[in-house]
Structure prediction request, 159 residues.
Amino acid sequence: MKKIILKLLCLTAAGIMFTSCGPKIYTSTSAYRQLETEVVKNDLDGHLTLKVYGNGINEDDAIDQAMRNAVNEVTFKGIVNGNGTRNVPPIFSNPNVKLDNQNYFDDFFLRDYRKYVQVVQKVKKMKGFGSSERVNLGVILEVDMNRLRRHYQNDGLLK
Prediction:
């Protein structure tokens, strides 16, 4: 009986030693990180220049996603990263406005958002961010904050 217990103990110890000596596997979360929108320039005429990231099945789709991201950020989230500029608060201070007007904003982000944002420059394609089958692109965009704010006022969402 003692020999069986001793053999079991030795086998367990050997198993622990062999599994602990294997190569360490480091998992990086960099592929899952969300790149944040940055303010490049905040003009006095109401135009906001942003560096935004988009992801799509091709380059045009990635640019379109970046444009949606830019309008979404200035409308609901605001922007805290920037190039020495102050933070840009969101157009809507009410955090529930998107949920309260879900149909309106679903429709807006299908068509109308393109009127208020334009591409200034494509920055770079990125690798290692998201799926390898998708295009990841950084884009410099200009958002016309005054026209966007006026659009929301005319539609009765902003006072």
Q: What stands out?
A: Helices lie at 2-20, 59-77, 97-100, 102-108, 145-154. Residues 2-20 form the longest helix (19 residues). The chain is about 35% helix and 25% strand.
